[in-house]
């Protein structure tokens, strides 16, 4: 099988490249490196079954080799990144989804769209089930990401209904792990960088907002299982173990053996107050649930950041 992964040089995308290669697929990583990093795929460059196409998927592309699977993961994903690149974010969610769906139609390939828990916005239903339609501020700063992903879901369903493409939609909840960018502004790299260096840890708001953190290896397993199922409605993938961001800061500080102080900074606009996936659907359809607990996942991630920071003189 030949599998195309847009955003293949990103954090999640590069782990998907590893997994599909391990399963014996030929893998093409398509990326324009707007937030991705060549280091993430450096270990794959000598693999004859792996290749990279440098391209912005918001522009159409023709790929002559027959594709069996297309996973559309290209998009800035960190709030800092998508606020830095609002228009490319809207374009890749809209035009990039259209172009990658067009490829799937032409190649008769299975398709999987990486949607997000952000389509639930600042949710009024807790935990979030797939049947909840969400509470998004369309014109707020986060709207560029949320609405692009909502459009991407709608487009994916339209291609399924109209063109009978074998589509799949996952709604990914906060996922962390090795190969996140140290400076992408998300809470895990920020807290780890600060704690390891003994610098103040920046807690936004009063820290009572919640998130539920999933290790990337669990996410990848769920994606692999869904791609081959005859199921086309959205599926939440995430770890339902919810934590306040204040407690999370304390956990990371203690894992790092750090004496960093916690400093309070303003809460970004429209920052969701609570987020936790209801994963009943994933359990039922995929027989999937996360197996890496937060402590284990954070230890692995911290070891990665420590090594990287040492290598680049930051520690
Ligand atoms: P990331 O920034 O590490 O990876 C995104 C990749 O997409 C990067 O390599 C980037 O260069 C590439 N890219 C962006 N725009 C592109 C374009 N127009 N053409 C080609 N390549 C492009 O982020 P990530 O955390 O790995 O996220 C991957 C996907 O998963 C994204 O679609 C994101 O929305 C989704 N997601 C991630 C999370 C999470 O917690 N990590 C949560 C919800 C959804
Ligand atoms: N956050 C924080 N300090 C930071 C970075 C993030 O307190 O240095 C908070 C942020 O306000 C949010 C949560 O951590 O409530 C998760 O933020 P992230 O950017 O990782 O992802 P989000 O879930 O908001 O998309």
Automatic annotation (TrEMBL):
Q: Where in or outside the cell?
A: Golgi apparatus, Golgi stack membrane
Question: Mind giving the lineage of the organism this protein is from?
Answer: Bacteria, Pseudomonadati, Planctomycetota, Planctomycetia, Gemmatales
Which Gene Ontology terms describe the biological processes this protein takes part in?
D-xylose metabolic process; UDP-D-xylose biosynthetic process
Q: What is its EC number?
A: 4.1.1.35
GO cellular component labels: cytoplasm
The protein's matches in InterPro entries, at most eight in alphabetical order, are given as:
NAD(P)-bd_dom, NAD(P)-bd_dom_sf, UXS-like
Instruction: Describe the family membership recorded for this protein in Swiss-Prot or TrEMBL.
Output: Belongs to the NAD(P)-dependent epimerase/dehydratase family. UDP-glucuronic acid decarboxylase subfamily.
Family annotation (CDD domains): UGD_SDR_e
Q: Which cofactor does it need?
A: NAD(+)
Keyword Membrane in annotation: yes
The membrane topology noted for this protein in its Swiss-Prot or TrEMBL record is: Single-pass type II membrane protein
List UniProt keywords, sorted A-Z: Decarboxylase, Glycoprotein, Golgi apparatus, Lyase, Membrane, NAD, Signal-anchor, Transmembrane, Transmembrane helix
Q: In which pathway does it act?
A: Nucleotide-sugar biosynthesis; UDP-alpha-D-xylose biosynthesis; UDP-alpha-D-xylose from UDP-alpha-D-glucuronate: step 1/1
Name of the protein in question: UDP-glucuronate decarboxylase
Q: Single GO molecular-function term?
A: NAD+ binding
Provide the NAD(P)-binding domain boundaries: 4-301
Enzyme class comes to lyase
């Amino acid at each position: 099988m030949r599998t195309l992964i847009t955003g293949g040089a990103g954090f999640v995308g590069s782990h998907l490249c590893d997994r599909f290669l391990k399963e014996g697929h030929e893998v093409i990583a398509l990326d324009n490196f707007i937030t991705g990093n060549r280091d993430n795929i450096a270990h794959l460059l000598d693999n004859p079954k792996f290749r990279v196409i440098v391209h912005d998927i918001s522009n159409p592309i023709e790929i002559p080799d027959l594709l069996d699977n297309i996973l559309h993961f290209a998009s800035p994903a960190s709030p800092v990144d998508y606020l830095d690149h609002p228009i490319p974010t809207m374009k890749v969610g809209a035009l990039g989804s259209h172009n990658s769906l067009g490829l799937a139609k032409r190649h008769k390939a299975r398709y999987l769209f990486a949607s997000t828990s952000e389509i639930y916005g600042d949710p009024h239903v807790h935990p979030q089930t797939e049947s909840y339609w969400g509470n998004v501020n369309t014109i707020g700063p986060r709207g560029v990401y949320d609405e692009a992903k909502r459009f991407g879901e709608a487009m994916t369903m339209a291609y399924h209904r109209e063109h009978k493409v074998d589509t799949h939609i996952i709604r990914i909840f906060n996922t962390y792990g090795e190969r996140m960018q140290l400076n992408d502004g998300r809470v895990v790299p920020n807290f780890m960088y600060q704690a390891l260096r003994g610098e103040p840890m920046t807690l936004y708001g009063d820290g009572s907002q919640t998130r539920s953190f999933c290790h990337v290896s669990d996410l990848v397993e769920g994606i692999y299982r869904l791609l081959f199922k005859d199921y086309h409605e959205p599926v939440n993938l995430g770890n339902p173990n919810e934590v306040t961001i204040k407690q999370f800061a304390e956990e990371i500080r203690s894992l790092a053996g750090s004496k960093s102080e916690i400093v309070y900074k303003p809460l970004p606009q429209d920052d969701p107050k609570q987020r936790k996936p209801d994963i009943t659907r994933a359990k039922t359809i995929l027989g999937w649930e996360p197996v890496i607990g937060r402590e284990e996942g954070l230890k692995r991630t911290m070891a990665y950041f420590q090594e990287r920071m040492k290598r680049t003189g930051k520690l």
